[in-house]
Amino acid sequence: AHSVYSMVHAAIGGRRGLAPLHDASSLDRTFSKGRKGRPLAILVLDEMDTLVSRKQKVLYDLFEWTTKENSRMAIIGIANTMDLPERVLPRIASRLGLNRIIFAPYTSA
């Protein structure tokens, strides 16, 4: 799950090849000290339910960065389970702006 930090860091123009925890620190600085003129970073997390772990640190960090003043980050989360908001820790759930869009299962029509 920590590789998410490296993927996000590289996607916003960070140096490649850094350790995931170094990338996490760099992302924290970037989104905690946001500049008003910086472009909005929209992170699409597909299969977000795979990031649910015991401590849920990665999910917490990602959603925490969206709450920082001038962070310029938004998250669109996609999950295969309907109960994801109920499965995350309360400290993460409090940061979710929840709009559920339910799609029908795939069919071979």
What does this molecule look like?
The chain is α+β, with helices and mostly antiparallel strands and 109 residues long. It has a single domain, classed as 3-Layer(aba) Sandwich (Rossmann fold). It contains 5 helices and 2 strands. It has a two-stranded parallel ribbon with strand order 1-2. The protein is globular. It starts with a helix and ends in a 16-residue tail after the last helix. The model has no long low-confidence stretch (mean pLDDT 83).
Question: Strands, helices and their partners?
Answer:
Layout: H1 3-11, H2 20-32, E1 41-45, H3 57-66, E2 73-77, H4 84-87, H5 90-93
Parallel strand pairs: 1-2
Helix pairs in contact: 1-2
Subcellular location: Nucleus
Domain ATPase AAA-type core: 23-95
Keywords: ATP-binding, DNA replication, DNA-binding, Nucleotide-binding, Nucleus
Provide the CATH top-level class.
Alpha Beta
Give the total of domains: 1
Taking the sheet with the most strands, its summary is: 2 strands, parallel
Overall number of strands:
2
Q: Remind me, CATH topology?
A: Rossmann fold
> What is the straight-line distance between the termini?
35 Å
Percent helix: 25-40%
Supply the CATH superfamily name: P-loop containing nucleotide triphosphate hydrolases
What structural category do the secondary elements indicate?
alpha+beta
User: Secondary-structure element sequence?
Assistant: HHEHEHH
Report the radius of gyration as a whole number of Å. Answer: 15 Å
Outline, from the CA principal axes? globular
Low-confidence stretches: none
GO molecular function: ATP binding; ATP hydrolysis activity; DNA replication origin binding
Protein name: Origin recognition complex subunit 1
Keywords: ATP-binding, DNA replication, DNA-binding, Nucleotide-binding, Nucleus
Family: Belongs to the ORC1 family.
